[in-house]
Amino acid sequence: MQKLTALILTLVLSGCAFPGVYKINVQQGNIVTEEELAKLNEGMPRSQVQALLGSPLMLNPVDPSREYYVYTFQRRGGDIEEQRIIVHYDADRYSHHEAELLEETPAY
Fold it and tell me: The pTM is what?
């Protein structure tokens, strides 16, 4: 009975987060810099924009005139920092973008 209790207790506690356990940095999405955004010119084809910025993270199935580039970074289980860029197109040609960039890209 004591062995069974010790085994169950060990299994239950193994799922808990103990203090001092190393947590990794987690980054997801597209890293896009101000320099890359500055290279965008009005009238660029969609394929050229994607070659410069990479594949968009999200596509709007209802409105294909927008593409979304999102980047998130979480440092060792802390708060999540997020960067969002929305690229707008007019007839598959770049027209403008909206950007909420991080002050510093933590991945670098």
Answer: 0.72
pLDDT tens string, the chain, 108 residues long: the values are: 888 888 887 777 766 656 667 778 888 888 888 899 999 999 999 999 999 999 998 888 888 899 999 999 888 778 888 999 999 999 999 999 999 888 876 665
Spatial separation of the C-alpha atoms in residues 52 and 38, rounded to whole Å: 11
Q: Return the CATH number of 23-100, one of 3.40.50, 3.30.1450, 1.20.58, 1.10.3470.
A: 3.30.1450
- Find residue 89's DSSP bridge partners: 94
Domain boundaries, the chain: 23-100
In Å, what is the CA distance from 106 to each residue of 6, 21, 25, 32, 33? 43, 22, 10, 12, 12
